[in-house]
């Protein structure tokens, strides 16, 4: 069995990129041959400690990365795919049984490859494509042609089925088992901090976290700091200006990209995890925090509301109500009993989302499609 996985770009250290790594790892573990293709690779900003473990091929020459933005590279790869991919297969004398397109524009590539080589293909989406006009018409046509479609969680499945008018299989992302104990939890209160691990983009609303920290300065709880991971962008400068405006000084710490093993240590030390993105398709960071026994606070909207059980494994705030969000963070900092109870419940719940369960859903359905064509 040989499968080609298509992923649009490896430009950031995000959940979609981590998911692709886990898919490659699992498929190789069960004995499949796997090649991964993309339009763009940034080895400095996309999990620099992990990406070297995986052989990823660029559809177009990597030298173009220095002069062409990653978004444009995705478009160029799509336009040139019908020539570039067959050329690669011919040059390397390689042959695939199945094509797997994960997130836009990869389903288009999987569709083209399927038609050229007359093999089945599957689509994996974390959200419907944000295209308009004729491009969206083409996208809907391509997705409907797929042998199988998967969605990243219940919310993504609902949105994709509504948009594309076809069945999607619920196949949420996963998480590695984290460590948690009473001893680990007690150690958190010696150097208390709250944590955000989202990418630095305006849509993630990390500024909410800074505003929340300002509101926590009440004297009724331990003095906490806010730690923010992620590669710095132009948006980071906006966040730093906000920190200066609120005179928070060294109470906000920007930690840049964190190696995977160090990130787990950072999770284990946090008292509360803040997921400030108002509309997120899934929320892998929430699961990662839960696995380490950190109660999350997120908005009661989109993907997170299907992950967090409000009042048991974390809190869900009223959408758009920052005071309500702040109040829920305060509760977890003031009441140690509540914090521990939710931390333990979150840790136990995260066990329902192992990465291998995600990959086994893919394996089962891909095998089924191949066998149905024999």
From TrEMBL:
Bilayer-crossing regions: 67-88
Alphabetized UniProt keyword annotations: Membrane, Transmembrane, Transmembrane helix
The Glycosyl transferase family domain, residue ranges: 182-339
Family matches, as Gene3D superfamilies: Glycogen Phosphorylase B (3.40.50.2000)
Entries under Pfam families matching the protein: Glycos_transf_1
Keyword Transmembrane tagged: yes
Molecular function GO terms recorded: glycosyltransferase activity
Domain of life of the native organism: Bacteria
PANTHER family xrefs: SULFOQUINOVOSYL TRANSFERASE SQD2
Name by which UniProt lists this protein: Glycosyl transferase family 1 domain-containing protein
Organism: Candidatus Woesebacteria bacterium RIFCSPHIGHO2_12_FULL_41_24
């Amino acid at each position: 069995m040989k499968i080609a996985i298509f992923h649009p770009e490896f430009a950031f250290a995000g959940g979609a990129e981590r998911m692709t790594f886990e898919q490659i790892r699992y498929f190789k573990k069960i004995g499949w041959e796997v090649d991964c293709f993309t339009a763009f690779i940034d080895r400095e900003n996309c999990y620099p400690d992990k990406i070297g473990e995986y052989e990823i091929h660029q559809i177009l020459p990597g030298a173009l990365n220095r002069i062409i933005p990653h978004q444009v590279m995705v478009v160029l790869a799509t336009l040139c795919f019908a020539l570039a991919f067959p050329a690669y297969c011919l040059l390397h004398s390689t042959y695939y049984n199945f094509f797997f397109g994960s997130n836009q524009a990869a389903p288009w590539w999987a569709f083209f490859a399927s038609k050229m080589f007359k093999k089945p293909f599957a689509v994996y989406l974390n959200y419907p494509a944000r295209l308009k006009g004729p491009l969206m018409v083409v996208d809907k046509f391509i997705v409907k042609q797929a042998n199988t479609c998967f969605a990243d969680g219940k919310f993504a499945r609902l949105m994709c089925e509504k948009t594309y008018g076809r069945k999607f299989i619920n196949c949420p992302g996963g998480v590695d088992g984290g460590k948690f104990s009473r001893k680990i939890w007690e150690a958190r209160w010696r150097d208390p901090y709250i944590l955000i691990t989202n990418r630095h983009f305006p849509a993630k609303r990390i500024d909410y976290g800074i505003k929340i920290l300002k509101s926590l300065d009440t004297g009724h709880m331990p003095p906490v700091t806010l730690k923010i991971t992620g590669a710095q962008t132009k948006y980071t400068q906006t966040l730093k200006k906000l920190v200066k405006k609120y005179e928070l000084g060294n109470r906000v710490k920007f930690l840049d990209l964190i190696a995977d093993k160090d990130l787990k240590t950072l999770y284990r030390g946090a008292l509360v995890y803040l997921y400030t993105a108002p509309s997120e398709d899934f929320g892998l960071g929430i699961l990662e925090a839960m696995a380490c026994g950190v109660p999350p606070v997120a908005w009661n909207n989109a993907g997170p509301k299907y992950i967090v059980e409000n009042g048991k494994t974390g809190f869900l705030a009223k959408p758009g109500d920052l005071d309500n969000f702040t109040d829920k963070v305060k509760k977890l900092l003031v009441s140690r009993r509540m914090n521990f109870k939710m931390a333990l419940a979150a840790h136990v719940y995260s066990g329902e989302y192992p990465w291998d369960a995600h990959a086994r859903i893919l394996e089962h359905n891909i095998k089924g499609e191949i066998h149905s064509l024999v």
